[in-house]
């Protein structure tokens, strides 16, 4: 699948439109190598896949828009794909007149097309198993999935706008297990494979795995000084996409960040969050072809600078949009680093908890900004700057106004890029740049 092929399909589909019909086409494609590990290689192969979302908008009378969408698979064979699109448009053409008006629908626009192509330096397909297994060693219980290859996103509309994004990247999402089935989780990803960086990732995981062999300690409920590694901070940041940072959620009174807008609350001046597309890991364009700013400051030193505003929210609430997705979620989040050196983490923590990962996160009180979840994988009890023992799983329940506010002591000087590793129906793009975080107190309930 290349841009010329996509443009040809688009032009033919647009040329067959009738009066007052408008079209949006959104492409998702990939050619991916997958290798699944479970004490060795258990499955390997290459998948070539492409799907197209076809959206037909009918202007039934001036200013009255109706819309419907349908997703189809593409084969890469021109005549088959042209016929599949023609059939999809035909089905939508029959459905749309009977639908109610969509007051927030948009007609296609053409503010200018874009093209982003990012090539990578990936492992040769045949070298992947040996490269990974040699680094881990024969005596370690390994489970994980390696995914690599080009991923494509495209968008075209009947205003002759075309956006194209192609990126070659990889991710290795893995866990190492002790004989007692305690696990350390790691992820290594990017567009440039580096043997030394990969071995450092594995070496760090192996060191934690050795510590997990100690007798675990049960920690009582209460508030503890806590250091959260980047993966744990990233899990908390993902919650901002769950009805917090979007304009619609703020306007509907669901988002805890409405308190920032109203001046009722502030987060720590040490905390800043942006959408940053400059790394090229994810496309800037959205489903309707709008281009997001290369960098948009969302939270600036604890204050709400911008929310994510889709074209629908822009039209509904009469505010300027910033090319957010329709669901107003984070696509390229980046948390500003702090001043804490990695070598100083345990010393600054003193006595408390060192948290590697969090999972099963959810809002326990969305309006109040309270998040609950569980510790996961290699988490440790620290005394006087020394690792004493792994801990049994714990549940936390705390507020973003404490974790990213009054209790935030510092963030690490360095940030890590944590790639999206989702492969359920397609490979995800993008990731998050995030530092580690030291808080003076984190509330654990059991």
Short description:
The protein is 21% helix and 40% strand. The protein has 446 residues and is of the alpha+beta class.
Describe the structure.
This protein has helices at 3-15, 78-95, 128-136, 195-211, 230-238, 247-251, 258-261, 311-317, 345-349, 400-406; strands spanning 21-38, 41-61, 64-73, 114-118, 141-157, 162-177, 183-190, 222-228, 273-276, 295-300, 303-304, 333-335, 352-355, 357-365, 370-376, 380-383, 386-390, 395-399, 408-419, 431-444. It is α+β, with helices and mostly antiparallel strands and 446 residues long. It has two domains: 3-136 and 147-169, PmbA/TldD superfamily (PmbA/TldD fold, 2-Layer Sandwich); 222-444, no CATH class. Strands 1, 2, 3, 4, 5, 6 and 7 form a seven-stranded mixed beta sheet that branches. A six-stranded mixed beta sheet has the order 17-16-13-8-20-19. A hairpin with a 2-residue loop joins strand 10 and strand 11. Helix 1 (3-15) crosses helix 2.
Furnish the topology, listing elements before pairings:
Blueprint: H1 3-15, E1 21-38, E2 41-61, E3 64-73, H2 78-95, E4 114-118, H3 128-136, E5 141-157, E6 162-177, E7 183-190, H4 195-211, E8 222-228, H5 230-238, H6 247-251, H7 258-261, E9 273-276, E10 295-300, E11 303-304, H8 311-317, E12 333-335, H9 345-349, E13 352-355, E14 357-365, E15 370-376, E16 380-383, E17 386-390, E18 395-399, H10 400-406, E19 408-419, E20 431-444
Parallel strand pairs: 4-6, 8-13
Antiparallel strand pairs: 1-2, 1-5, 2-3, 5-6, 6-7, 8-20, 9-10, 9-12, 10-11, 13-16, 14-15, 15-18, 16-17, 19-20
Helix pairs in contact: 1-2
